[in-house]
Amino acid sequence: MKIDRRQFALPVLALGFMSVVPAFAGADEDAIAKNVEAFRAAQAAGNADGIAPLCAEELSYSHSSGAVDDKAALLAGVKNAKYKWTSLEYKNPTIRIVGPAAIVRFNFVGEQEFAADGKKVPQNLHVLMNWQKQGSDWKLLSRSATKL
Fold first, then answer.
1. How far apart (Å, rounded) are the C-alpha atoms in residues 66 and 84?
2. In this structure, what are the phi and psi dihedrals at residue 128, rounded to the nearest 5 degrees?
3. Which residues form the signal peptide (predicted)?
């Protein structure tokens, strides 16, 4: 049986491409994980300027109360908050990339302290974030929270 080099070319190329695709997915997962942590840190600090570049212009941000903000309303709410976060963690995050989108889920656990009376309010939510690849950046496109 005579074997030609061309018979091996397609399988070798296919294996080569298969090994590259997970590397891109890993890089995207890392970028999304960094953005999620940057969002959490900015949120915990009440830093609207840190949140703004992470969000898509088309942002739809749903709170556990049922209120829905666009990007401008979210940033105004962060700037004018009548509370500060005494703690804020995103526990057990998962990231699933689907084409140019990513589904991120986590348990949002924190405590807010209100300026007017010093009252502390615990928060325990399940959060779903959808991130979209826009150019080379991942932007938060939507977020939804449910009280636990």
1. 21
2. -120, 120
3. 1-25
DSSP H helical ranges for 46-120: 48-51, 71-79
Q: What is the radius of gyration, based on Cα positions, of the chain? A: 21
Q: Report the alpha-carbon distance of residue 96 to residue 77 in Å, rounded.
A: 29
Q: In whole angstroms, give the CA distance from residue 26 to residue 35.
A: 14
CATH number of 115's domain: 3.10.450.50
Domain interval for residue 78: 5-147
Tokens (6 digits) for 129: 């974030």
Task: For 67-87, give the DSSP string.
Answer: -EE-HHHHHHHHHT-SEEEEE
How is residue 111 written in tokens? 């405590």
Distance CA 133, CA 32 (A): 10
